[in-house]
Amino acid sequence: MKPPRLFSKAEIVAALARIAPEDVIEAMRQGFEAYSSGKAQVAPVTHLPFADPPGDVHVKCGYITGGEFFVIKLASGFYQNGDLGLPASSGAMLLASTQNGFPAALLVDEAYLTDVRTAAAGALAAALLAPKFVEAIGIVGTGAQAHLQLAWLEHVTACRTAFVWGRDPAKARAFAVDGFTVTPVSTLDEVLARCNLVVTATSATEPLVRAERVRTGTHVTAVGADMEGKQELDARLFARADVCAVDSRSQCLDHGEAGYAVRAGIVAPERFVELGELATTGRGRTSEAQITVADLTGVAVQDIAIAQLVYAQLLR
Prior knowledge:
Helix content is about 35%, strand content about 30%. The chain is built from eleven helices and 17 strands. The strands form three sheets. Strands 10-9-8-11-13-17-15-16 form an eight-stranded parallel β-sheet, sandwiched between helices. Strands 1, 2, 3, 4, 5, 6 and 7 form a seven-stranded mixed β-sheet that branches. The model has no long low-confidence stretch (mean pLDDT about 95).
């Protein structure tokens, strides 16, 4: 057998640039639909926490029934890497045949594909749940994922006005995304007062978004709580929400925002609906007055979808 083909981040970035963003979002939709309909096999997520230096590693894997490949993804985040002149994130995705198990390709994306597929999932959540008229977009966080979340919202909403809050005011002042007018604010409450589409993308370990501060008619997408110990939302927000969405019911109840609300007895597990179910049935926001929340922990079907999409483009 031939050894797996090796692709660098530069090759992967160039290949993804040749794919329409709408096609990436559609691939996320199809992946979530497959997951929620039982057409995907996904193993439990492996998390490796590190204390000194602080960081974490995620390993996710799975395949979609009938697909050509299964995918194993490793993504790491070490938060002091900047002091060493290194990116905070790294990783790779391995594609292997579902027919014989042999590796076909190793995409050394340095977590780039993970970042993009997370942003594309955020865009899908907004497409399904955000109000029709978005007055302003609120971004909580100033890192790479916060930038990507705003950039990908360009493909699902006409709003180009954003307000950003971060723990470091200097980073908030420097926050910029092409095509958007971005205003830094000094308090998170100001974001919640001005915006009816809010995305949280931080590594917070205690709630940032207070339930009582979220406006009627707002949609909130939370992407930061991707492992045990992380939390961005006041769990009481789920009691106020008319639609409580998750990318994976089992994952979010285990180590997402949803789990905090259920363990506290604030809402029942049955309140949560998966994005794949919303995409299939169309049961999303039904009025502009509703509050909706999407808890995204990252599911292997996203990695499968984007890895196969990019690999096909690399082979062209």
